[in-house]
């Protein structure tokens, strides 16, 4: 049963994404704002700990990592779509930059499928940092209706991290999961072993 905890956390995050999207159609009230913020934080925590627990238990298979990446994408799309509904002025004011980040995300998946017939599961350090920044921005938006400088920082890091992922997918000779940075991808291409942090990439 313990070995099923990582998979359970992944499924839990998927349900959280659908719950956030559904609740965002209700009229905004302070208690609902707090509830939505709490659900987003739970989703982030499940994202952090599913990989750590899977590596500790020795069940961090390629299949699980691919599922984890796909659920991550679905969860954040649900959250962003829900927040757009919850804060209707957010999308019209920022549609261009949001489209750029989402377009790059779609491009990374498209290139990965074209090259390897598999979705990406890189879990780069840049993508992890971007997730934390995205969470902070969405929490501020949910709780206050404003984003301030966090939105610009989130867009900038989102673009940089997506471009890094795209570079990694193009550099790798074969599909691989948990590549911390572009530098590590270059090492793999040269046939050199890479070191991964036990907490972040196994």
Automatic annotation (TrEMBL):
Keywords, comma-separated and alphabetical: Membrane, Transmembrane, Transmembrane helix
InterPro entries for this protein: CDP-OH_P_trans (IPR000462), CDP-OH_PTrfase_TM_dom (IPR043130)
TM stretches of this protein: 32-53, 74-91, 97-116, 125-143, 149-172
Pfam family, one: CDP-OH_P_transf
Keyword field contains Cell cycle: no
Protein name: CDP-alcohol phosphatidyltransferase family protein
